[in-house]
Design a protein that fits this description.
The two termini are 29 Å apart. This protein has one domain (5-53, 71-195, 221-302): TIM Barrel (Alpha-Beta Barrel). It is 34% helix and 21% strand. An eight-stranded parallel beta sheet has the order 3-16-15-10-9-8-7-4. It has a four-stranded antiparallel beta sheet with strand order 5-6-14-11. The protein has a two-stranded antiparallel sheet with strand order 1-2. By secondary structure, the protein is an alpha/beta fold. Strand 1 (5-7) and strand 2 form a beta hairpin. 47% of the residues are buried. The structure holds ligand RRO. Ligand RRO binds at residues 21, 45, 68-72, 100, 126, 128-131, 193-194, 218.
């Protein structure tokens, strides 16, 4: 069995990446991922200036997943750009970088800086942070998304990707697919970010479990797997020629296989990585190998996008 995958000019030994936000805010965390079994790594979504993020507690785990309202804590884009400048792109696993400006202008300034740096990284533009009080997720505003992508394409002259929020209606899949279809610079689409603004309740304490937004936060983990798979499958078939990164509910080789079967080129691990640490990437990789052996598949291409319908 060979888990290797080549896409958008990068080569990965296996399809596993951390989900942006998990274990990737500091150089120390990024280095731990670099030394892990991950096939590539991605940095925490960055803003123009460093941010402390929302007040704690701002992450909680449950039996079925997680809720977070981190509020975009990050060291500022210059920190991650410095890391990328020092990175040994020639010999190390591929590096992706997530960008999540607080405004159109901030996104343009950062994307222009990444263009200027001309590094062999893939940029994932985050259209879907659910945790900034008063700021709606751009991905739910199709007009604003189209404007942003058109403007970004003028200052960033390489292919890039977008991190989308989950959609829940075929009309909305279609509207966002049309926006992306109209932007030739889009090389990949990451589905999905957390399901925004869920509410986890601690029954014993009769209380919310995180402080920001009176307890509302982005939901990840087992809860989101079916929604993630639907988004991966719908965008993969509506956007032939672009790559889909699957994210949501992957905690073993089984869910990784499902995402790829639904059309994902590579996959990202969020909640499970937060809970278990980088050793889970070794486990998930090895489980995927075993599952493929059992099924008689030799490469990811043997089953990618081959989901059967009834
Ligand atoms: O930092 C966060 O609160 C956060 C971000 Br930017 C995001 O895109 N998704 C998420 O679940 N949390």
């Amino acid at each position: 069995v060979d888990l290797a995958v080549a896409w958008l000019g990068i080569q990965m030994d296996n399809p596993l990446i951390n989900a942006s936000g998990v274990m990737c805010r500091t150089v120390e965390e990024l280095e731990a991922l670099r030394h892990s079994a991950a096939g590539a790594l991605i940095t925490k979504s960055c803003t123009l200036e460093p941010r402390k993020g929302n007040p704690e507690p701002r992450y909680a785990s449950t039996a079925l997943g997680s809720i977070n309202s981190m509020g975009l804590p990050n060291a500022g884009y210059r920190y991650y750009l410095d890391y990328a400048r020092r990175y040994d792109h020639e010999h190390d696993k591929p590096l992706l970088m997530s960008v999540s400006g607080m405004s159109l202008e901030d996104n343009l300034e950062m994307m222009a800086a990444f263009d200027e740096a001309a590094l062999p990284v893939l940029v994932e533009l985050n259209l879907s942070c659910p945790n900034l009080p008063g700021k709606p997720q751009i991905g739910y505003d199709f007009e604003a998304s189209a404007r942003l992508l058109a403007e970004v394409s003028k200052v960033y002259r390489r292919p890039f990707g977008v991190k989308l929020p989950p959609y829940f209606d075929p009309v909305h899949f279609g509207e966002m697919a049309d926006v992306l279809d109209g932007c030739p610079s889009i090389g990949f689409v990451t589905c999905i970010n957390s399901i925004g603004n869920g509410l986890v309740i601690d029954l014993e304490r009769e209380s919310v479990v995180i402080r920001p937004k009176d307890g509302l936060g982005g939901i990840g983990g087992d809860y989101v797997l079916p929604t993630a798979l639907a988004n991966v499958r719908e965008f993969a078939r509506r956007l032939p020629g672009r790559h889909v990164i699957g994210c949501g509910g992957i905690r073993s080789g089984r869910e990784a296989f499902m995402h790829i079967l639904a059309g994902a080129t590579v996959v990202q691990v969020g909640t499970c990585l937060y809970e278990e640490g980088p050793a889970c990437l070794t486990r998930i990789r090895d489980e995927l190998v075993c599952l493929m052996q059992d099924k008689g598949y030799r490469t990811l291409a043997d089953f990618r996008g081959c989901l059967r319908t009834l």
